[in-house]
Inverse folding.
């Protein structure tokens, strides 16, 4: 098995390889085909293809000379006004090499830029629009000042669906000679929560242990609770057996080294599969959110989880 990081090894090189963002890809590809792109803002969760699409845009525009016409900065590392005044401005003011009349600057995690840096960037985008285009990516577009947003075409990325992740995983598994079943793919998807980068990292981690990928192996790598274990706990609680539910929960947390917040997330997912009325499910979800908040604020994890189990027991006996 290659020691190369798979997220880089299998990074898409063309528009057709980018998964899960079809509408965005079509619109961006039309800009590239016309050799005239506006300033662009990619907003959305991590691992959904923002940086990858920016790189595809540059490679399709400039072909073999893309490295000479492209500057990539991670705004969370280089976030001050001096970076905008010096590094960005110096690159933006020079002409591009080749037939494309502009260069491209990619600012990753642009929502980490300080307010002063964003104000300086606004003027730079305006003054050098003839020789440079900006592509910015961020998790939260609300942290980008309005003057910058108004100068950009904004594309909002969504979390990947299971079919998109399935396509990526099966492609990698075929090239790496891995054996993987549907249950394992489901486990990887559930563990990644729609983050393709995390999916690939999980796959590589499990493949380093065995070329046969199973859901149990994925659960071991994720250090997460198995849905069937949590279901047993909730079944005991809804049946009114608080002591058994408490004992099984403690057993899961100690033997599998699962954090309280991970248990809460697993319970929240499993609530929707319980054979109870929808109104009761809503009450249990509300209680789950309340307990998660208390744990986040620093309350004792196991005491709070016992309180949550008590709520399930009361719900099970109709109180």
């Amino acid at each position: 098995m290659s020691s190369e990081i798979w997220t880089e090894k299998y990074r898409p090189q063309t528009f057709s390889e980018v998964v899960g963002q079809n509408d965005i890809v079509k619109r961006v590809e039309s800009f590239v085909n016309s050799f005239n792109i506006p300033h662009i803002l990619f907003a959305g969760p991590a691992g959904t293809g923002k940086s990858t699409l920016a790189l595809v845009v540059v490679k399709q525009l400039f072909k073999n000379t893309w490295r000479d016409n492209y500057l990539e900065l991670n705004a969370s590392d280089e976030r001050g006004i001096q970076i905008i005044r010096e590094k960005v401005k110096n690159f933006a003011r020079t002409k591009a090499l080749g037939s494309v009349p502009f260069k491209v600057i990619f600012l990753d995690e642009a929502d980490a830029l300080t307010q002063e840096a964003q104000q300086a960037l606004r003027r730079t985008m305006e003054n050098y629009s003839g020789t440079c285009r900006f592509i910015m990516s961020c998790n939260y577009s609300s942290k980008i000042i309005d003057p910058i947003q108004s100068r950009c075409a904004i594309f909002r990325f969504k979390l990947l669906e299971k079919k998109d992740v399935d396509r990526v995983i099966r492609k990698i598994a075929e090239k790496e000679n891995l054996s993987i079943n549907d249950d394992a793919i489901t486990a990887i998807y559930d563990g990644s929560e729609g983050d393709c980068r995390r999916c690939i990292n999980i796959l590589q981690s499990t493949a380093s242990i065995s070329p046969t990928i199973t859901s149990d192996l994925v659960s071991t790598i994720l250090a997460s609770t198995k849905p069937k274990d949590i279901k047993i706990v909730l079944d005991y609680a809804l049946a009114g057996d608080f002591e058994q539910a408490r004992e099984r929960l403690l057993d899961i947390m100690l033997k599998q080294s699962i954090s309280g917040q991970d248990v809460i997330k697993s319970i929240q997912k499993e609530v929707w599969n319980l054979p109870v009325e929808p109104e009761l499910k809503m009450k249990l979800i509300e209680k789950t959110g309340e307990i998660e908040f208390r744990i986040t604020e620093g309350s004792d994890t196991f005491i709070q989880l016992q309180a949550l189990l008590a709520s399930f027991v009361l719900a099970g006996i109709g109180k």
In short: The domain at 227-316 is CATH 1.20.272.10 (Zinc Finger, Delta Prime; domain 3). The beta strands are 39-43, 70-74, 103-108, 132-138, 152-156, 179-180, 212-213. The chain has a mean pLDDT of 86. Residues 19 and 164 are 6 Å apart (CA to CA).
